[in-house]
Input
Amino acid sequence: CGEIKITTHRQKGAPLKAFLEHYGMKTVDTVSVRDIADLLDEYRQREQHRMAQIVRMVLIDVYKEAQHAGEVPPGYNPAQATKQPRNKVQRERLNIEEWKIIFDTGQGMPRYIQNSMLLALVTGQRLGDISQMKFSDIWDGYLHVEQSKTGTKLAIPLSLKCEAIDTTLEQVIARCRDKILSPYIIHHHHTTSQAKRGDAITGNTITSGFVIVTGK
Output
């Protein structure tokens, strides 16, 4: 676990605590798929479907680290072999700890996934509006947004700070700036069959990326 950051460890504390409470007397290489499935079933029975997803996701990472450390054989990942819990509620608000775990899991995925999550959290805007935000919408210290659904015009200060993650909108925008010439804040980094490098990321593509991260 030496390579795991302290903040990451804190974010994943609840799933790890539950795992240890159930199977702390076992060695990591003797925990079975059935054991993990039983743990997830407890969350399902309490209707905590989102938390079941997060626990599974965290334990998959635990076993990946265990493989790298040589604690279990290559490919041994009982958490990954379990069935992905389904969230019966299609749209469910995340609490901040769930958000942090999912954000952390997005490392190594396309950069737009984390960037869009940050923009959504700090600005509170809809996915469709986030996908259309442009760098040219920024002037006089504000990000100017015209909501596509309501037509409402907003001027969001770049100094706006989300205390939960200690990050300002200005910092998020700076993170989104890169060497790719694009008018869009959230943009493609590589040309694909559907879009060119620098094109806007559609709301559907952002949603698909989020699904990949969560395994939902």
